[in-house]
Amino acid sequence: MNRPDGRLADQLRPLSFSLGIAPHAAGSVLVATGDTRVICTAMVEDSVPRWMKEQNVVGGWLTAEYSMLPYSTLQRKARDSSKGKVDGRSVEIQRLIGRSLRAVVDLELLGARTLWVDCDVLQADGGTRTAAITGACVAAYAACRKLLEDRKVARLPIKQLVGAVSAGVVGGRPLLDLNYPEDRDAAVDMNLVMTEAGQYVEVQSSGEEAVFSPEELSSLLELGRKGIQQIIAAQRAVLGI
Fold first, then answer.
1. Using 50, 70 and 90 to split pLDDT, how confident is the model at 149?
2. Among 18-27, 41-50, 201-210, which stretch is predicted with the lowest mean pLDDT?
3. Number of folded domains in the chain?
4. Pair 188, 168: CB distance under 8 Å
5. Model confidence at 80: pLDDT above 80
6. Most-buried pick from 5, 15, 41, 188 (CB within 10 A)?
């Protein structure tokens, strides 16, 4: 069975980054993976959450917000502000983005600052959460590099890069980097977050009214590992590191 876009089972969608998409942010990037496009920005605030002050926690904090813009899908998606609350899926994803970045940021070195990361989906065709993590890392790195250039930190607060990708079993085949039709039809769906050192930050995997074998799990993990190696190479290239 051929994939809808003709890719091989272990092939990523075309991936690109456009830096400096939001000039007022300390770091920003438009990440495009296939037809999915996400703007990721990072801004620095010279304060920390109140709970950190109350508990005398040293260092800074990083937090993330995620949203799908109304025109990102075929049917208009209502803004969270019109509903009076953030929907559960958005809350789950922004927590995942935050966890993924805090795993590679030295919060103590960041100092008494908050790094705000915002991810806004312009166009959704599968893999928006993984694209958001991949782009958020680039934006956060650019923001932290600016802190270093401005001599506000002694060393770069980012210890290593982090990337994310999806994989799944579709039509009985393990596939890398699912687009929307594949994600919709997947019997097994996985989102994988890894550091450039090859360490796992998070593995989200579930059967969609199906079960999967240890062999299929291993295949998906290996596909994801190879894909994230390529993603991190692309991150390094656009950041010039």
1. very high
2. 201-210
3. 1
4. yes
5. no
6. 41
